[in-house]
Each structure stands twice: as C-alpha cells, then as structure tokens.
Amino acid sequence: MAHRSHTPLQVGDAPMPTAAPGEIVVNNSAVAINPLDCHMQDIGVFVRKFPAIFGCEVAGIVYEVGSDIQDFKKGDRVIGHTINLVSGRPQDGAFALYTVIPASKAAILPDTISFTEGVVVPFALEAAVCALSVKEPGLAMPGVPTPGLGLPYPSLQTAISTGKILVVYGGSAATGLMVTQVTTAAGIQVISIAGAHNFDISKRCGAVQVFDHKDSSLVKKVVEAVQSSELEFKGIFDAISSPGTYAQDLAILANFGGGHLACTHPPPTEAPENVKAGMIFAVNDVATPVWEEYVTPASESGKFQCLPPPTVVGKGLEHIQEALKRSKAGVSATKIVVEL
Ligand SMILES: NC(=O)c1ccc[n+]([C@@H]2O[C@H](COP(=O)([O-])OP(=O)(O)OC[C@H]3O[C@@H](n4cnc5c(N)ncnc54)[C@H](OP(=O)(O)O)[C@@H]3O)[C@@H](O)[C@H]2O)c1
C-alpha cells in the first residue's frame, strides 16, 4: 500500500474485503503492472486518499461472491479488472492478496491458461473496447471527450469484413496489441505501427501490415497502405499519445480529410476540426458484453490470445515495488507481472 505519493510501497495489513451484490472477491494469484500504477505512485493521479492500494488487474481464484451472483462461484479461476480508479476504495486495488472486482468486469480463465498469462488482459481489454465501441462520446475527464468510433464488438465467429480499416500507433504496446486483436475480431482491418523487432507479435494479433515507427517515410507508407486497401478509413488509435506520435497521427489524418483519433492521454490541442479526437477512460461499462460473452469462449477456442506475454519478476507482494521500477524503465511487447 502507498501512504503518500512519491514514496515506496509498503506491505501491510488491510481489512479483509467482502463481496457486496454485483461483486466478487478474488484471492489473487498474479497481478500486472501498468504505466498508470507508476503515475499513481509518483504524482498521486487518480488517488482519492491515502493509504491507497494501487493496481488495475488481477488473476486468481474466486473467494466469495455477492448474494446475487450467478455466473461465478467460490473456487473459479478468473481474471478481472479493478475499479479503484473510480471508487478510490483500497479493497478495489489489485496489489493485495484479496481484491473486490465487479462481476461485470471479470471472466472465467480457462485451465489451459496460467494466471501469469491471463493477468495481462483485463486493463488493456477494457481500454481497447472503450477506444473502439463507444458510440456517443462521454467525458474521460473534465473538458476531454472519450472517442466515439462506434465500431462493433469482437465476434466469436469468423469475423465478416465490415469494409473498414484502422491504424494502430504503438502496435506492440499492451493496449495496441489488444486494440489490434479486438478490432480484427470485429471484422475491421488493422495497419500497425511498432518497433521493427515487434512486427511478428503485432501480426499474431491480426495486423495485416506493420510499419516501423522509426521509418522516416512512415506517414507516406501508412497513407499508401490505407489507400491501397480500398477500405473505409476509420482513423487512428494511438497507444503512445506523445507529442511525437500526435504529429505523425495528424499528418496521416490530413491525407484523408480527418477521421477519429483515439488517444490514451489527452488528445492534441492543435487537432483540426475534421479530426474527432478523444481520450479513452479504461474503466468503462461499454466493455461489459465483451467480458460476459466473449473473453472466456474466445480464450477457450484460442481465438483470443493473452498478449503481450508476461515478464514475471517475483513472487509475493514485496516484489511489487521492484516491478513498478521495471515497468517505469520501459517495456517492449511484454507486461511486468508479480505472482502471489
Ligand atoms: N486512458 C486510459 O484509460 C489508459 C488505459 C491504458 C493505458 N493508458 C496509457 O497508455 C499508454 C500505453 O500503455 P500500455 O500499457 O499499452 O504501454 P506499454 O505496453 O508499456 O508500451 C510499451 C510499448 O510502447 C511502444 N512504443 C514506445 N514509443 C513508441 C513510439 N514512438 N512509437 C510506437 N511505439 C512506441 C514500444 O514499442 P517497441 O518496443 O515496439 O518500440 C513498447 O512495446 C501509457 O501511457 C498508459 O498510461 C491509458
């Protein structure tokens, strides 16, 4: 737990959580680290009060279910997305032995998938569905809309082409890989932009073409690839969302008279009017049908892959501070994970 911002996490006692209606309590077997956890520790962003328990995703065994829960029972293996960002409650943070998860943000993890593999999914999945399937933009934060691409959900069947194409900038980032998978499974083609060493994993997630983000002709190559697809260009999901990637995004979009720009951080202020830019907010109920109907059967059939692969840095809560440090140093097509 964190007692204040900018100080190392400490392992300590916390009250044992209980499951209210609509909730499950998970006995965590693995937790994953996200860049946001580092921001929460460093500058206290999204922290309502200290002491706080951070962490956005868990994999483990259901310990208790709320009185109305039908879809889960004690002993089930699950993955789940925490809501500590919006609730501020310590019992909703992942970096603990037991965490409360809304049942609508959890799914059964097939026996063939380990907890350390499965735990990379929840946060990126909900971020991806928020980026793609929100129809009417809400607010990610005051004055910043969410993107409203209105794209369909992923399908368990072989996806029928929607005739659309999306560019994913940061195609090897955890969110970029997930957007690529979910978009492809919804029948939308993906052109990905990633590091040259990560073309294969991006293609494994469904990208039809991948371009190197360091290529000096990147904009020209991406524009030509979109044009030659003869599909309807929907826009760009930018997992990186930095000034450098925004400049490239806007240059690409300018060739198509604008389009959607879904960002992981506040969008560029200099975007022209024909660019519909918004920032995702990953705790988003738009993902509920995907949690309830897609994740488990698609994982069982192999249609949905738990990617990027985890890098396990230790076993026990005492390893989480080191894991945060590793994540902050930067990762490439992996997620830092701690076993519990
Ligand atoms: N708003 C929200 O709700 C929300 C939700 C989730 C995440 N986020 C934010 O989204 C960002 C991404 O998170 P994440 O977990 O997906 O990241 P991540 O997996 O930690 O990102 C690492 C990847 O970034 C890639 N990368 C770095 N610079 C790049 C560039 N200039 N062009 C293309 N790729 C580049 C690297 O690619 P190579 O190794 O291939 O070069 C690496 O694979 C973070 O800032 C996070 O805080 C926001």
Automatic annotation (TrEMBL):
Annotated keywords: Oxidoreductase
Domain of life: Eukaryota
Domain Enoyl reductase (ER), first and last residues per copy: 4-338
One protein family per Pfam: ADH_N
Gene3D superfamilies cross-referenced by the UniProt entry: Medium-chain alcohol dehydrogenases, catalytic domain, NAD(P)-binding Rossmann-like Domain
Single annotated GO MF: oxidoreductase activity, acting on NAD(P)H
Family named by the database record: Belongs to the zinc-containing alcohol dehydrogenase family.
Record protein name field: Enoyl reductase (ER) domain-containing protein
Origin species: Hymenoscyphus albidus
